[in-house]
Amino acid sequence: MNNMINSPVIVALDNMTLQASLALADQLDPALCRLKVGKELFTRCGPDIVKALHQRNFEVFLDLKFHDIPNTTAQAVLAAAELGVWMVNVHASAGLEAMSLAKQRLLDNNLDTLLIAVTVLTSMDSEVLLQTGITDRLDAQVSRLAQLTKQAGLDGVVCSAQEAKTLKALCGQDFKLVTPGIRLADDNTDDQKRICTPSQALLDGSDYLVIGRSITQAIDPAAKLQTILQSI
Ligand SMILES: O=C(O)c1cc(=O)[nH]c(=O)n1[C@@H]1O[C@H](COP(=O)(O)O)[C@@H](O)[C@H]1O
């Protein structure tokens, strides 16, 4: 495992077969980014994809966003951490008990895998949130779920970089902020609603930038990663 990476970039391997994701990984340098395996790739390939990326010296964020009853959530987090991944996640809306139990299960098994929780997805705006029955302001809901996550003893949250400043002030410097919805000014926004540039996200307190299509759909993904790293 490479624990010397100081790059904040996590490249999301979405919209790809096993072969395509490994071909992309082979173009990237594990000293310059971590990789994120999400629901699509994991459902296609299972733990083999994680093993293949570990063999290439990448640290892996296994993004399966568990959201279930406490025991099921905790056992799923344990199973994910046992794959040796760097970071795993749950939905904060699974609740305090589910998050606390998941964290405790990692500690009981001496696993130091980072455990974070998704607050409000970056593809949502206040209108989409309202459709789910949350009548509070979006930023208030993000803050509420971040505080619940901290109370449960997790390592941090997934949020939009637009909320980073507020959450660092609310939850402290050590509480990790993992921010997707990252785009350079001339990138396509796709289905993301709450977006931010890499440099602004870091200035506002993001610890890690999750970047998918801007890199993976670029003609030269390694060059695009370099452009992003140079911009920060
Ligand atoms: O947990 C995540 O990683 C996540 C949370 C969130 O709120 N928004 C979000 O976009 N993501 C993930 O981050 C990645 C963003 O990809 P791009 O929009 O292509 O950069 C995708 O893999 C999403 O599943």
UniProtKB/TrEMBL annotation:
InterPro entries tied to this protein: Aldolase_TIM (IPR013785), OMPdecase (IPR014732), OMPdecase_AS (IPR018089), OMPdecase_bac (IPR047596), OMPdeCOase_dom (IPR001754), RibuloseP-bd_barrel (IPR011060)
List, for all copies, the residue spans of the domain called Orotidine 5'-phosphate decarboxylase.
Answer: 8-228
Q: Where is the active site?
A: 63 (for ompdecase activity), 65 (for ompdecase activity), 65 (proton donor), 68 (for ompdecase activity)
Q: Does the keyword Ribonucleoprotein apply?
A: no
Print the keywords alphabetically: Decarboxylase, Lyase, Pyrimidine biosynthesis
Q: Which PROSITE patterns does the record match to this protein?
A: OMPDECASE
The record's listing under SUPFAM superfamilies reads:
Ribulose-phoshate binding barrel
Pathway annotation: Pyrimidine metabolism; UMP biosynthesis via de novo pathway; UMP from orotate: step 2/2
Reactions catalysed: orotidine 5'-phosphate + H(+) = UMP + CO2
Q: Which GO terms describe its biological process?
A: 'de novo' pyrimidine nucleobase biosynthetic process; 'de novo' UMP biosynthetic process
Q: Could you say which residues bind substrate here?
A: 14, 36, 63-72, 122, 183, 192, 212-213
Top-rank taxon: Bacteria
GO molecular function annotation: orotidine-5'-phosphate decarboxylase activity
> Oxidoreductase among the record's keywords?
no
> What's the Enzyme Commission number for this chain?
4.1.1.23
Which cellular component appears as one GO term in the record? cytosol
What do we know about how this protein assembles, alone or with others?
Answer: Homodimer.
* Entry-linked PANTHER family: OROTIDINE 5'-PHOSPHATE DECARBOXYLASE (PTHR32119)
Its protein name is: Orotidine 5'-phosphate decarboxylase
